[in-house]
Design brief:
This protein is mainly alpha-helical. It has 2 domains: 137 residues, no CATH class; 47 residues, no CATH class. It has a 3-stranded antiparallel beta sheet with strand order 3-4-5. Strands 1-2 form a two-stranded antiparallel ribbon. Strand 3 and strand 4 form a beta hairpin.
Length: 223
């Protein structure tokens, strides 16, 4: 946004906190909040309520901790060491597409290392797979591992189903919000009822988002 010229009133690029407040503000869905009650605005909505709720869910999941978006995941990250100097290998992504491993000792020059600069992730993966092919697990241990993996898979299947259910529930609550406002402006309900029902829906949305964030974090950790 800064590169496209977005500036605040002081002429500086907006801070992350300002962007966060913008993303949390329902005014962009076409509503105005006054004394805790949402009212349809006369302005044209920039985004749908459904998209707004999805953004809230994403931000909630980010707030639970873990790796930030600028950190890249790889199943071999933090488990590999340089064969030349013994330093840890760290994972990077170049140009948003190409994954590489690089020696920390060589990069920081803390240790003399003859390892080449960047090792393509696919080369490292193939090397690890070759090692795995030579590993032989005792039959009894293999049965125990298979049993444990089946239990984990079943548990994660239930979590995935719960995630789908919660996503649908959030959509239902968004539709309830719209119907509630229509009823209010049709004089079918008074402002006290409107505020009470909005508070109920907001509480259910918050609970569903929290559960969705929790289930998503569990699924990410399991995979």
């Amino acid at each position: 946004m800064a590169a496209k010229g977005l500036r605040n009133r002081l002429g500086s690029p907006p801070r992350v906190s300002a962007v966060h407040r913008m993303l949390k503000n329902p005014i962009y869905t076409g509503v105005v909040v006054w004394k805790g009650v949402e009212h349809p605005g006369i302005h044209q909505p920039l985004i749908s309520r459904d998209l707004f709720e999805k953004v809230q869910s994403v931000m909630e999941s980010h707030s639970t901790g873990g790796d930030r978006a600028w950190k890249h995941d790889h199943y071999l990250k933090s488990v590999l060491y340089c064969d030349d100097c013994g330093s840890r290998l760290y994972y990077v992504v170049a140009k948003g597409r190409f994954g590489y491993f690089r020696c920390v000792g060589r990069n920081t020059r803390r240790k003399p290392c003859g390892q080449r600069g960047y090792i393509p992730a696919q080369d490292v993966e193939k090397a690890v797979e070759t090692i795995y092919e030579r590993v032989r697990i005792p039959p009894q241990l293999r049965k125990g591992v298979e049993r444990a993996l089946k239990e984990v898979a079943e548990r994660e299947r239930h979590r995935a189903e719960a995630t789908v259910f919660l996503g649908r529930r959030l959509k239902q609550l968004a539709n309830e919000r719209e119907r509630l406002l229509k009823a209010y402006y049709a004089d079918a309900i008074d402002v006290a009822t409107l505020k009470r029902e909005q508070d109920r829906i907001n509480a259910e949305v918050a609970e569903a988002e929290a559960q969705l964030s929790s289930e998503g974090a569990k699924l990410k950790k399991a995979t």
